[in-house]
Amino acid sequence: MFGGILRLLLGTALALAALAVLLAMVADALPASLFLSMGAYATLFVGMFIALAGILRLTRQKP
Question: φ and ψ at 53, to 5 degrees?
């Protein structure tokens, strides 16, 4: 039971951290570099897929 919840929380945390970095680059708080933005987008997609795996694991559990 906790595997799905932990994956969901971990994926959500990664995605939110990546969105915060991207927002900081848009607001000129961070220097906008190609590698930083590519890393942030990659982290965003990885976080979304980890969260999706957590959701799928939660929905497939048998009572």
Answer: -65, -40
Residue 58 gets the label, from left (phi > 0), alpha (psi -120 to 50) or beta, of: alpha
- Per-residue pLDDT tens over the stretch 3-26: 889 999 999 999 999 999 999 999
- The Cα diameter of the chain in Å comes to 49
pLDDT score of 62 more than 80: no
Q: Do residues 30 and 21 touch, judged by C-beta distance below 8 A?
A: yes
Average pLDDT score over residue span 29-44: 91
Q: What is the DSSP string of 1-63?
A: -HHHHHHHHHHHHHHHHHHHHHHHHHTTSS---HHHHHHHHHHHHHHHHHHHHHHHHHHT---
